[in-house]
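dumping the sequnces here before i forget
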Amino acid sequence: MSAATGANEVLLDVRDLQVWFPEHGRGVLRRVTGHVKAVDGVSFEVRRGETLGLVGESGCGKSTTGLALLRLVEPTGGTVVFDDQDVTQLDKQRLRALRRRMAMIFQDPMASLNPRRSIGDTIAEPLDIHGLHEGRQARRARVGELLEMVGLNPDYRNRYPHEFSGGQRQRVGIARALACEPDFIVADEPIASLDVSIQAQVLNLMERLQGELGLTYLFIAHDLSAVQHISDRIAVMYLGRIVEIADAERLSDEPQHPYTQALLSAVPIPDPWRERERTRIILKGDVPSPLDPPSGCNFRTRCREVFDPCATVDPDLQPVGDGHVAACHLHGVVGQQVERSHHPNRGEGGEALVVADRATS
Amino acid sequence: MSETTTASPGKADYGADPVLRVNDLRVRFGTKRGRAEVVNGLSYDLYPGETLALVGESGSGKSVSTLALLGLIPQPPGRVTGEVLYDGRNLVEAGDADLRKVRGNDIAMIFQDPMTSLNPVLTIGRQVTEGMQLHLGLSDGEARERAIELLTQVGIPSAESRLDSYPHQFSGGMRQRVMIAIGLACRPKVLIADEPTTALDVTIQAQIVELIRELQIEFGTAVIWITHDLGVVAGIADRVMVMYGGRVVEQAGVEELYGTPLHPYTDGLLGSLPVLGAGGGKRLAAIPGLPPDPTAMPEGCAFWPRCPHRLDDRCRTEQPPLHQVRPGHWSRCFYEVPDDEAAAR
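..and the predicted 3d for all of it:
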């Protein structure tokens, strides 16, 4: 975990971010027949020096959110304010200048490194684009410095990606992200494709670099254990929405949203005693299609706590504790505490959730 | 003391004869860069109803060793030696016709990626019924009925109408359920599950783990569960074999292994995992370096170059034997993890 600065200065402020992809019909005119609502009204802040974890399952929109922050996909709505500039409004030139300060680390370093370029050239590319460390000597020195920073031998600069292991390639990806001295790094599943013993190496490296360089991270991953380890705060996404944001420890100790609770209970823990005692909430069915999400609350089709307002009213993120917000009607509809008139349909019907007590099963 | 039986969450029957005995199994491949020694003398017994977890990182030989059980290694370039005793026969020596009777019938396999292991141009129904018709001699109608039963059992809603669907019409979790239904179609004695949940999200993973557990209890199937995820292992396994460089480096009942890991590699793996609810902040004890290259195996202990405890030349030059340190707990190390460090973890 980073040493978050005392000022709590907001570096990135995302409001109602929306990324909809049009779906075309089969006819000659290929008319737009609907939208895949990959990201549908997402708001969060990232404070300078912190790591915000963004977790969720495949297709929840977490990667698209990360890409939209840097406008690597175009948002269809909302604002992304980075250090007082709205990224969504910038022209090409200004955007390019801003991208110097925002970098990205990708999941699969084999796919994100050019196989025909030496890693030295790959790392130097952002320097060339932004006109930094110009001249052969300066460029060479900077590449060497970056390689050392990520724990690689500077003499490797002339080697090609296939000559490295997965963990080393990810180090190259990190070195490239650091080239222009960014303030903010979006890391999209940076350890997902690595072996277990190598994942820890990369997590430790990212933490060390954050301490040394004062970096701010958005750490996107599906692995809650890793996210909780590295993050100061965590945002949980489901079907294009953020359903809960809290301090990392608080989220795992006192999750408030039923989806977060189910997700946490499904994460395997490398401890046979704890595993045997846990109550696992098994979610039934699959995530609904983002083309046609359910009315009201997105999660209601799989939620065990469903009651009256869920089908009609879309819950907003609302405070449920110190710096802790959740989007669930259990915590009041539109700011008001509700009396639940009937018992939720817990364990009833095929779509609802069952609680499997593993001790008795 | 028999940790293994008391630790059992399922219905492992250690009093019975093993269903499968593996003796000194070796697999190597001829490659351009020389001979790759991928499995280097693997021996174990598998008992009815138990779940044996095979844990290791990429290249540890865990998947290849189970492919070899069913004669699924092409030879050449592969070369498989040793014994795989099932029902009085050595499957390593068995011919193709004999193997075909065993595959899918007595010993079935679920693969990691259901998209690449299901045939995209055949209907789900055809793929589920194929094995039953071949091995059990069921008629079309009988097989179809049984397929509906199986698909319902693995949690596919309105199974009857889905029989004529194709794999691409199913989600990842549903496809994996279909694979499980195929695997269980002939009620095998042994089910080999090769990373069956790795490609899936955790909430779907939880569904699949629960499903295999239920079916195992119902049919008394012995499961070999191959995975790199020590979290999953903690929840499902009776016994665990940790593999490194094509050899078992540690073997024990699940509680014994997690409670008192003896091999420095196991200890390192457990130390390098972020654990949910353990709080952040603590640096992970990463294992330095990289796994060994199978074409250039170290002469002595395969883990020696990365080992924090390596003490002398013996580790570098001599292959440590797999020895029983306590009843049922085996470790391939001349030395054990020092007590003070194990306690500090």
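DSSP finds eleven helices and 14 strands in chain A.
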